[in-house]
Design a protein that fits this description.
Structural class: alpha+beta
Low-confidence stretches: 238-254
Largest sheet: 6 strands, mixed
Mean pLDDT: 83
Protein name: Transposase IS4-like domain-containing protein
Strand content: 5-15%
Pfam family, one: DDE_Tnp_1
Distance between the termini: 5 Å
Shape: globular
InterPro entries: RNaseH-like_sf, Transposase_11
Number of helices: 11
Strand order of the largest sheet: 1-2-8-7-6-5
Organism: Bacteroides graminisolvens DSM 19988 = JCM 15093
Helix content: 40-55%
GO molecular function: DNA binding; transposase activity
Number of strands: 8
Length: about 300
């Protein structure tokens, strides 16, 4: 289920939003009522991603929408987001990717010293805290550190001895690696939504140069997707999420979907291990780049659509 969306502008290093001088001059402009809903959308267009994320979470909480985890990629792994999540009165935690490699310059407090992610990995590997998961066929390290003046847990994972390290951060310091891996994999449902909305509902296909038209077009796509999701749940008797959970916990359909999802995970893990790739790279190829494997998206959606 799509709860919220925003259209953002990327200024870029040159501050021209990726357009030439001629294109900037030819842009459609119009005076807007400062108190209109459209003006609010225009203000969002110029906001930072992290600020907009905080605004969206606030809107969801005000509408009494409850959630256990906020899942995000490395763009949102910043101190402002962590402090915001920690300050909420509802029980929720952050779980998201962090930059490791050459871009992993963020400092984390550990044993009264500051370490970057690569430095932490090196130190903990020397202390033989690196473990191997037969189930997921990967090496991983778990460590509790201080970030944004609060305790967080970091997970570092890689597929082979010489592969690249990947990282996750969560504000739930009791979360185990296997559960974190399972929970974070749900973020790929968003990629499935994008693919299906673009391919079947015309997301991003609006050719109008008026910003109001773009907002209207995207809103209609979101409404269509939500209606179709609800219809599918009722016609197929699906029980994902909380829908009908109390009365059909052990439904055959859900158990079959779990088995299919488990088989898909096994395939992805095997490919990642064989070629030294990251899980995210494989999911991205399956969901976003391969028309021949489009049917796999339907299997994935059965497990993750919400």
């Amino acid at each position: 289920m799509i709860l919220d969306f925003a259209i953002l502008g990327e200024k870029g290093k040159k501050g021209n939003y990726g357009m030439s001088d001629r294109e900037l001059q030819q842009r459609f402009t119009k005076e807007r009522d400062k108190d209109s809903a459209l003006q609010e959308r225009l203000n969002e267009y110029y906001q930072k991603k992290t600020d907009l994320m905080i605004s969206m979470i606030r809107r969801a909480i005000r509408k009494n929408i409850r959630f256990r985890y906020v899942l995000a990629d490395s763009w949102f792994a910043c101190k402002d987001i962590i402090r915001f999540i920690r300050s909420r009165h509802i029980k929720c935690d952050y779980l998201g990717m962090i930059k490791v490699g050459e871009n992993g310059k963020t400092k984390y407090g550990f044993e009264r010293k500051d370490f970057t992610a690569p430095a932490l990995i090196k130190l903990l590997t020397q202390r033989k805290q690196k473990k191997y998961s037969r189930k997921l066929r990967c090496y991983y390290i778990t460590v509790d550190v201080v970030f944004a003046d609060t305790s967080v847990r970091l997970f570092f994972v890689r597929r082979s001895k010489n592969g690249a390290w990947n990282g996750l951060m969560t504000t739930n310091t009791k979360l185990e690696f296997f559960e974190a891996y399972k929970i974070y994999s749900q973020r790929w449902s968003l990629e499935v939504i994008f693919k299906e909305a673009k391919g079947m509902l015309g997301l991003g296909k609006c050719q109008a140069n008026n910003f109001a038209s773009q907002i209207a077009s995207t809103s209609l796509v979101a409404l269509q997707y939500n209606i179709l999701s609800v219809v599918k749940r009722f016609t197929a008797y699906e029980t994902m999420g909380k829908l009908f959970q109390d009365i059909t916990k052990d439904s055959l359909e859900l158990s079959v979907t779990d088995r299919i999802w488990g088989a898909l995970q096994e395939i992805v893990i095997a490919i990642a291990n064989l070629f030294g790739l990251l899980d995210e790279e494989i999911y991205d190829a399956i969901i976003n780049r391969s028309e021949e494997l489009g049917h796999i998206c339907d299997i994935y959606k059965l497990k993750l659509a919400s």
